Inverse folding.
């Protein structure tokens, strides 16, 4: 009878992630060992050598393995040879599925040389037991390595070491310390331009278009130009373009104000590689970690703009002046900017309306408020408001701040102690109430009614406590009380509105009807405190 000849693939694999550090596990040594083994096997003919260098054994999402499996299904290969079971994989369940189910079904012979395991021969029950035991050990070993690696990375994160594979766009890894970031001077000005353009009212889409027009290399292209080797899911040799999403990611990234945020995502365990988001309280955050590219004041302004930017002008891709800020005085929803052509058919008329009324969803605000009229009202009000601040500041400069603060802090501390005592008393009464219920001194209906009263009282007390704590923080802050007004002075005598000015100084604009517009300015708490300080000086 003619002896069967097998077409075999040699499969070799190594991964530092799995703790593969032995010299014997190197790609070359695996090949040599298996090739020497084949010299003694006249019934096995070599088809190809498959190599997965740098791929974990935890799963089988490996390029060379996938190619080999495709040839197996095509009938080109019917034998697979590995150095040992751990080179094939370190996943007990997946290893068993392939070796005991899939390969026998496809008529594939599997050989693990160093483990003396060959499905082409009759395997004893003891050999199968050893096979399963080794698979379990390989799986457990990988789990142990995973735990150690995770622990080591967390230690580095806790120490404030940057552990990313690549530095963020705008930064480089320091030559003498790869865990530290330094500014990449070749692109730092581009980062500054992106923030500046956003402050001027440009949308992320328009900024991306401008960068492309100027021929600025994208973060990915910049890595290529810098000679950095990296993996990507995008097609190779294709020049990438700036996208709005890329711009937004840069604008939202705190790394540009010197803050390092790591550990935002993780994997459930060593077998599941799909990343999941961590809760923000579990992140590793270090402020003042490295030299910033963007001032924190500029960054904070941009974050406010990003929160409010809801609509973009169709013609020039710039954000509308009042987008996300103009509210309906009846239902509280955002007003929508609309346009219609004038009677002469040549000019457009722009106005704000409440869509809740238009869509008949409950609001009865039927007004159409002209955009030009709103711009005039806001410009005059803002200019007047800033002038008032400047005058108030001049008066406040003559007032002794120390006595005012001492007096206010003493009042707050007294009220705070009183509120805390009242909250504790209310909690005690609620507990006693429950004891009365258990002792049948009151019925359940009475218990619920009285408990509701105490809960309502506690809510009011806690809200008041939050208010005075906010005021206390304002008074005791190391930051100069009037530093928030520096922008006001620099904008004294505003002649024209801009998106940056509106976002910087206005919280919201409420339109009730054509004759009733309310503007809520930012820094109101600081302004009120400044006026109180002046009044205090007048009385005393």
């Amino acid at each position: 009878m003619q002896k069967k000849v097998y077409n075999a693939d040699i499969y070799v694999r190594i991964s530092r992630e799995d703790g593969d550090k032995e010299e014997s596990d190197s790609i070359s040594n695996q090949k040599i060992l298996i090739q020497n083994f084949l010299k003694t096997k006249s019934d096995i003919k070599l088809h190809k050598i498959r190599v997965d260098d740098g791929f974990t054994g935890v799963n089988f999402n490996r390029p060379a393995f996938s190619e080999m499996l495709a040839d197996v299904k095509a009938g080109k290969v019917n034998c697979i040879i590995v150095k040992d079971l751990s080179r094939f994989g370190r996943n007990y369940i997946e290893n068993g599925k392939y070796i005991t189910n899939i390969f026998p079904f496809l008529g594939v012979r599997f050989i693990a040389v160093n483990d003396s395991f060959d499905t082409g021969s009759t395997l004893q029950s003891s050999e199968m037991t050893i096979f399963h035991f080794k698979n379990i050990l390989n799986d457990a070993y990988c789990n142990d390595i995973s735990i150690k690696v995770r622990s080591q990375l967390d230690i580095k994160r806790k120490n404030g070491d940057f552990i990313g594979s690549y530095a963020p766009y705008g930064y480089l890894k320091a030559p003498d310390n790869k865990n530290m970031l330094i500014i990449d001077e070749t692109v730092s000005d581009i980062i500054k331009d992106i923030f500046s353009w956003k402050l001027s009212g440009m949308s992320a889409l328009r900024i991306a278009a401008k960068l492309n027009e100027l021929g600025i290399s994208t973060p990915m292209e910049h890595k290529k130009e810098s000679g950095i080797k990296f993996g990507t899911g995008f097609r190779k040799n294709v020049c990438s373009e700036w996208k709005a999403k890329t711009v937004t990611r840069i604008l939202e990234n705190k790394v540009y104000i010197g803050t390092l945020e790591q550990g935002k995502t993780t994997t459930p365990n060593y077998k599941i590689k799909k990343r999941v988001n961590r809760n923000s309280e579990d992140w590793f955050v270090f402020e003042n970690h490295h030299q910033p590219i963007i001032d924190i004041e500029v960054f904070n302004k941009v974050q406010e703009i990003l929160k409010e930017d809801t609509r973009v002008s169709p013609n020039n891709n710039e954000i509308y002046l009042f987008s996300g800020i103009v509210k309906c005085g009846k239902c509280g929803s955002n007003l929508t900017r609309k346009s219609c052509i004038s009677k002469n058919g040549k000019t457009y008329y722009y106005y704000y309306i409440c869509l809740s009324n238009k869509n008949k969803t409950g609001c009865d605000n039927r007004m159409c408020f002209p955009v030009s009229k709103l711009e005039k009202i806001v410009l005059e009000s803002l200019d007047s408001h800033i002038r008032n601040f400047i005058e108030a500041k001049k008066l406040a400069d003559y007032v002794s701040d120390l006595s005012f603060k001492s007096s206010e802090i003493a009042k707050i501390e007294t009220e705070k102690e009183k509120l805390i005592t009242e909250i504790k008393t209310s909690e005690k009464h609620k507990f006693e109430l429950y004891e009365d219920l258990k002792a049948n001194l009151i019925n359940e209906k009475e218990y619920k009614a009285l408990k509701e009263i105490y809960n309502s009282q506690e809510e009011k007390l806690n809200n008041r406590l939050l208010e005075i704590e906010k005021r206390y923080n304002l008074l005791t802050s190391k930051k100069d009380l009037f530093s928030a007004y520096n922008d006001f002075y620099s904008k004294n005598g505003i002649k024209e509105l801009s998106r940056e000015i509106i976002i910087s100084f206005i919280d919201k604009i409420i339109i009730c009807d054509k004759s009733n517009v309310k503007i809520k300015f930012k820094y109101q708490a600081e302004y009120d405190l400044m006026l109180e300080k002046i009044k205090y000086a007048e009385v005393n």
In short: Residues 232-237 have pLDDT under 50 and may be disordered. The chain is about 45% helix and 15% strand. The CA atoms of residues 89 and 95 lie 6 Å apart.
